User: Which sequence fits this backbone?
């Protein structure tokens, strides 16, 4: 099996009664172990009568595909030699998926149900599920069926969303998993560890689970608790790595959305579900995904001690390649917000998913630097901003703020126009708007980068002012 490079992410889910505009949100930072890993973003066309087997380049998993596949947005690796890793998208039925949030199961549960190396892995999940589902619940059901048949190669968390429901599924071992419907008035921040807590096996409306999981736990004496069935306690880990790599990210996300609640960033019992103190806007989700312990002593770009600045793994990293927010709006077209590169410095670009294309600058992602590529343009911007962070952070924040304001205005204008159109005309119109949105952001970004490079040239240490009297 080839080396898995996608294994460190942070996810956020927000229910429609917890959000400001009644939207359901799922979101995630896709992180890698390397800083440069080009990503594409485009629309895959619907297929009516395919006769095809899927074969994974990563582990040779082979699956017969259904004949009909829905159109969907996709964010694959530019180099598919180690797998497609389509990661996230929304299909034409307005169902969204983000896969995966890598997690770890403990050695006890893995002893009795080990992972299956040739089973379903992150590289395949979106490809095998998203084009074939018409609801968030159906996403859990299809992925569960695939795991039952082929096993799971990894421990993962997977997000599904539609306009009515959000489901989060955690796959712990080769064949065992649970899923929870996120309550409408709650949010979740997940960070590379099993987080789902108590499961009610009498409530199939709000929970789903793998066949035989209760007997598996009972027969192998795996439950450490006397009076509860807590998936995190049974299947999860509680290690030093969790307390420095994982739980602090959950702590920070909850600190942003519940600022009056005091918690220990290294606590192993941070709640999985939380009700926010105020309604959550898309900008709040962007703020968390772009964060690096801002305004705390743990910020690696802040003024804390050298030890504190390296104490915890941040949410936004140099190896974040693709940050996305899927917004299922109650009375409008679904939006996929996309920030390529480091979301601390890159803006979130709103694209309408009920469209036939995104933009050529997003489907073009060569192996080497080319500013015609959106991926490379934002990676270049990230490098420029961080090179003189103290001098460039405020201009960069102003640039992002201006684009956030422009996005809200643009979305409102598009919403009004779409109301006048039939379904076919709406798809064509939204496709055109995606191109115009990309063009606006591309031009604004190149101007911003030009301004920063010009300013940075004056900061060179290879500067000497001649005495005019000489």
Assistant:
């Amino acid at each position: 099996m080839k080396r898995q490079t996608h294994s460190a992410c942070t996810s956020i889910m927000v229910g429609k009664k917890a959000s400001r505009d009644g939207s359901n949100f799922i979101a995630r930072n896709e992180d890698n172990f390397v800083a440069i890993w080009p990503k594409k973003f485009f629309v895959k066309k619907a297929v009516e009568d395919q006769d095809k087997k899927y074969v994974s380049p990563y582990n040779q998993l082979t699956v017969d595909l259904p004949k009909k596949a829905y159109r969907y947005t996709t964010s694959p690796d530019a180099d598919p030699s180690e797998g497609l890793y389509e990661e996230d998208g929304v299909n034409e039925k307005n169902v969204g998926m983000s896969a995966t949030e890598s997690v770890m199961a403990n050695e006890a549960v893995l002893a009795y149900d080990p992972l299956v190396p040739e089973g379903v892995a992150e590289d395949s999940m979106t490809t095998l599920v998203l084009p074939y589902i018409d609801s968030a619940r159906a996403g859990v059901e299809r992925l569960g069926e695939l795991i039952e048949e082929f096993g799971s190669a990894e421990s993962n968390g997977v997000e599904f969303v539609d306009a009515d429901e959000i489901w989060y599924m955690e796959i712990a071992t080769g064949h065992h998993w649970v899923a929870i419907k996120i309550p409408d008035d709650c949010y979740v921040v997940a960070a590379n560890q099993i987080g789902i807590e108590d499961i009610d096996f009498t409530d199939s409306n709000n929970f789903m689970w793998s066949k035989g999981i209760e007997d598996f736990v009972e027969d192998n004496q795996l439950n450490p608790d006397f009076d509860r069935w807590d998936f995190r306690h049974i299947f999860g880990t509680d290690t030093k790595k969790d307390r420095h790599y994982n739980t602090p990210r959950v702590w920070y996300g909850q600190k942003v959305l519940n600022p009056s609640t005091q918690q220990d960033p290294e606590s192993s019992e941070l709640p999985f579900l939380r009700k926010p103190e105020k309604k959550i806007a898309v900008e709040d989700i962007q703020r968390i995904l772009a964060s690096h312990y801002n305004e705390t002593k743990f910020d690696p770009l802040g003024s804390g001690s050298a030890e504190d600045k390296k104490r915890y793994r941040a949410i936004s990293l140099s190896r974040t390649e693709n940050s996305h927010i899927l917004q299922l709006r109650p009375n409008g077209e679904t939006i996929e917000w996309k920030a390529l590169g480091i979301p601390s410095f890159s803006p979130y670009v709103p694209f309408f998913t009920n469209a036939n294309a995104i933009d050529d600058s997003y489907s073009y992602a060569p192996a080497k630097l080319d500013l015609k590529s959106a991926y490379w343009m934002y990676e270049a911007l990230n490098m420029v901003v961080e090179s003189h962070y103290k001098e460039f952070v405020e201009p960069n924040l102003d640039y992002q703020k201006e684009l956030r304001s422009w996005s809200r205005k643009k979305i409102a204008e598009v919403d009004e126009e779409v109301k006048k159109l039939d379904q076919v005309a709406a798809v064509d119109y939204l496709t055109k708007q995606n191109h115009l949105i990309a063009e606006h952001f591309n031009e604004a970004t190149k101007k911003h980068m030009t301004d920063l490079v010009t300013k940075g040239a004056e900061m060179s240490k290879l500067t000497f002012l001649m005495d005019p009297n000489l």
The first strand starts at residue 10 and ends at 14.
